[in-house]
Design a protein that fits this description.
about 280 residues; alpha/beta; two-stranded antiparallel ribbon; 10 helices; globular
Length: about 280
């Protein structure tokens, strides 16, 4: 298993592993809390220091799980959280951030994102993000579920200030490869890929099973290896099971061959034209 995790760098110079930990659906069941906290802590132990969460997840419950996991070891973690579009007005964003900080048990969030675009003018949200950064409440900010035209609008408002765009990306949701991935690559803005296993829907695919068998790997590892093969893309699979943390980490050692890629392209054709941005 790899000992040195490959990394990418945000525009502010901060370097993070290209494999992180997601928390969507964490905090929903008290019975799962111990395993969820243990999984996140094991991930930190193994170098998966980026943990992604949001105020929306379990109505703040996921942030509380993260807070418990990082208690006493805040410096080991790079925390990403997100503000809902309903809280994206200037004063509401400031308040939402304070609430997230309390649930996380920390005095700063490393990367704070607008979860998706709503009715609040982007200029107002960007102003709030800049204020939070000046006050030391967040270290950097970015967006989530933004298409190219939205990204261009943010870039006009705050040139070079946006750190990332977190979007849906996996083998069966490859639309961003046509235009969004090149746009971000040109500006050196890393992409965060959520649901890299498509909420588990990829696990039964016959082609993936054959490629996995050839590598002595699991289907999940091959699906992750595909996402991780895209330069400057950070995958954030969620798991509440410690054994799956080790499985995800091992995906970093898989190198897909040209033959593998041809098989995957045949089963999951890459986009040949612009597609509407997908979200789940």
């Amino acid at each position: 298993m790899t000992t040195t995790l490959p990394r990418t760098t945000f525009p502010n110079g901060t370097s993070v592993p290209v494999l992180g930990q997601g928390t969507w659906h964490m905090g929903e069941s008290p019975a799962s809390r111990t395993d969820e906290v243990s999984s996140l802590r094991l991930g930190l132990d193994l170098g998966l220091t980026l943990i992604d969460t949001a105020e929306m997840y379990a109505d703040g419950g996921a942030e509380r799980v993260v807070g418990e996991a990082i208690a006493g070891r805040r410096d080991d973690a790079f925390i990403v959280s997100k503000v809902l579009p309903s809280n994206a007005a200037r004063s509401k964003t400031l308040r939402a951030c304070e609430d997230s900080l309390k649930r996380l048990g920390t005095d700063h969030i490393d990367l704070y994102l607008l979860h998706w675009r709503g009715g609040v003018p982007l200029s107002e949200t960007v102003e709030a993000f800049e204020r939070l950064q000046q006050d030391g409440k967040i270290r950097a900010w970015g967006v989530s579920n933004f298409d190219v035209d939205d990204m261009e609008e943010v870039e006009e408002l705050a040139p070079g200030r946006m750190s990332t765009n977190q979007v849906l990306y996996n083998l069966s949701r490859r639309g961003i490869a046509f235009d969004l991935v090149p746009w971000c690559a040109e500006r050196r803005v890393p992409i965060m890929a959520y649901s890299p296993l498509d909420e588990g829907r990829l696990l039964g695919n016959a082609t993936l099973k054959r490629v996995a068998a050839a590598h002595g790997a699991t289907v999940a590892q091959i699906a992750l290896a595909f996402v991780l093969a895209t330069p400057d893309v950070i995958a954030i699979p969620k798991t509440g099971r410690p054994d799956r943390i080790r499985e995800n980490l091992a995906a970093l050692d898989i190198r897909l061959t040209d033959e593998d890629k041809a098989k995957l392209d045949a089963a999951f054709p890459p986009p040949s034209r612009k597609r509407p941005l997908e979200m789940i």
